[in-house]
């Protein structure tokens, strides 16, 4: 018995020593492509840390150089020149007129007191006025500030898209009612499509029943541009979710204002001289310097607007569809970016512009180009009118997306495509911003002095 | 037939219109935690783009401010003061004496002409001399530069670890031979463990057959610190792999030198004044400014040394085990980082220090602390001796890892732990660098003037 135990112990010792003697295995390094390794989760944290530290330094440098420039009261003066005169707010209140006009047109159309042609004509008048009235007001009123004007025009543009959708959907509903009526007279055995579609939804609204004040105002405030008779609703308001989004909204708006005042304004002011002197290397240096705060503010704006604010409003209204953006950060083509970063607008374009155009047999590329054209028009509209300065930089910026999209789609794949999209975002915006600011500066300050 | 077709067309139209009418779905936003979405692959590209652009700007700013400071010829002067006197190279050539001493000691031990105790004593003398001889030379020779000295000491430290491993493994082999001899005399039926372990390997070497010049020099040049009789070998030298690694080696070494000359040196020079005046906010600003280039250079160094260079050498020597690092970038604890970023050293510590200590019944925490102590000693040794200035900053930097490891392990989990590791890396290094540079500057320039 004992010799066996000793032998066993000796074997164990041999095996243990062998375990120590052999310590290398035939294998590839992780970073070699042959290893197939791809877990770089830590790199994300690294980026966050690096960005925080880099910006902490820039922040400190900025503070040492300029002192504290953040001034929340100053923001008010951007909206109001004269505290007794609130032109932008008045403009927004007036917008109710257009909402009412749309509702009453629809009511007339639903009972058939006016024809479809008259309806279309009334809408044409209503929607055209909706675009031209505020822009004319902003251009003529001297008491309106550029920021106030831009805000009012944004509200009107959103309203324009919403009412256009309202018109289309109600028209489709009338078409369905018409078709159903015709099929029902022809054959009594046809099953009701509406019934099978909406049976599970509580308090299901069908066509003429939706033409109420309550319904149209819910749509106007809802975070979507596409009208639907029965929006999906979330079961209840989650209070903690609501409070978190509210906190984010308040925090990020402050952060954006602070970053603009402390970081962008001094950088832009410093870049005016190189741009006037056309000192090329310094111009690029300034542009790259501006790119970082501009891009960060845009990212914060994205999160603030598309995640915090829209989710806040949606939660408050128990609006169920929270798809306000898709994973545009992974986009490998320019087209993917544009169709995923702003889902409300993309959905609207697809439903009320692209598909109807395609239905009329228009070529796919022509329809896409048309969307970019319309988008470019609205970008220009929202910038030029408030600044009272027509330069077409925003228009050209949007239109340049078409050759860019072609180039990226043609030559770049995967991560290279993604990097190209990011570069166009990071570099493209500050160029446009500097263009407008430069022209605005030359127009208002150089010509006066 | 025709009425049926018409009816079918009408149904299709109804369904198509329904598809248009319904366009919202009950769903969460991607960034809400409820969505469960986690694909942020694009963020990685964003980081790369942002880092490239930020650094492009810093590069341009740096160029405008300082002009071109990169000077490859200047690097040579770091190694050589006097072109006719190459002390560091001479030191490295002398190191062959120690290799030979180890080999001949082992040969005597294998045939039994000297006892194990004599062998251990000879090794003690050999290895102690190996550490003290170069440091004494570096401290006494005035013609040696700090960089040349550090390089020679690194070579000697690596050699120390290799020869220590050589001694251990050969000792284990003698133990195995001894045990096998004893078991074989006792029972002839025992199967050969060595046979079953190495049967598949071509030209398998067993114990005394490994004590050749060829074998020890292969080990000295192989990218590992752990000796093994039969290293796993890759089947062939992949030429394209070799060329890529060679190109990376040449490119990254140039990049590192360029970054040091163009970015670190001006930043360090500018930070001397705030550090002398003890201007606290500027000191932090300078430290953060230095953190970025220092960290980037460290990252490039990591890739250059552990991926490019080691893989190059391994490919050239057909050395199979390419695990020179693990995924330390994902490390959530300080301990994980230290045991994964430098696998050769970690493997050595585990095999020749930690496991033998544990085998003698030493507590796990005591053994870990001992490893950090030894590591701290070598860090200090490699910095203080070439600078001829004993300040203990490197020693304290390494020793501070123990409380840091405890803190991170105790309070931070997941991504927070990972971020803490990154912060300690990004911030810790430049503090130590600035400490040494500041003291070196005060010692050599302020005292002279």
Automatic annotation (TrEMBL), chains A, B:
Q: Which residues form the active site?
A: 379
Its membrane topology is listed as:
Multi-pass membrane protein
One GO molecular-function annotation for this sequence? retinol O-fatty-acyltransferase activity
Per the record, the pathway is: Lipid metabolism; glycerolipid metabolism
Q: Which UniProt keywords apply?
A: Acyltransferase, Endoplasmic reticulum, Membrane, Transferase, Transmembrane, Transmembrane helix
The protein's matches in InterPro entries, at most eight in alphabetical order, are given as: Diacylglycerol_acylTrfase1, MBOAT_fam, Oat_ACAT_DAG_ARE
**CC annotations in GO:** endoplasmic reticulum membrane
Principal subcellular localisation of the protein: endoplasmic reticulum
Location in the cell: Endoplasmic reticulum membrane
Tell me which Gene Ontology terms the entry assigns under biological process. Answer: triglyceride biosynthetic process
Query: What is the residue range of the signal peptide feature?
Result: none
Keyword Endoplasmic reticulum applies: yes
Could you name the domain of life of the organism this protein comes from? Eukaryota
What reaction is this protein's catalytic activity?
2,3-di-(9Z)-octadecenoyl-sn-glycerol + (9Z)-octadecenoyl-CoA = 1,2,3-tri-(9Z-octadecenoyl)-glycerol + CoA; an acyl-CoA + a 1,2-diacyl-sn-glycerol = a triacyl-sn-glycerol + CoA; 1-(9Z-octadecenoyl)-glycerol + (9Z)-octadecenoyl-CoA = 1,2-di-(9Z-octadecenoyl)-glycerol + CoA; 1-O-(9Z-octadecyl)-3-(9Z-octadecenoyl)-glycerol + (9Z)-octadecenoyl-CoA = 1-O-(9Z-octadecenyl)-2,3-di-(9Z-octadecenoyl)glycerol + CoA
Record's family? Belongs to the membrane-bound acyltransferase family. Sterol o-acyltransferase subfamily.
Question: Self-association or partners: how does it assemble?
Answer: Homodimer or homotetramer; both forms have similar enzymatic activities.
Can you name this protein? O-acyltransferase
Species of the source: Oncorhynchus mykiss
Traced from the root, the source organism's taxonomic lineage reads: Eukaryota, Metazoa, Chordata, Craniata, Vertebrata
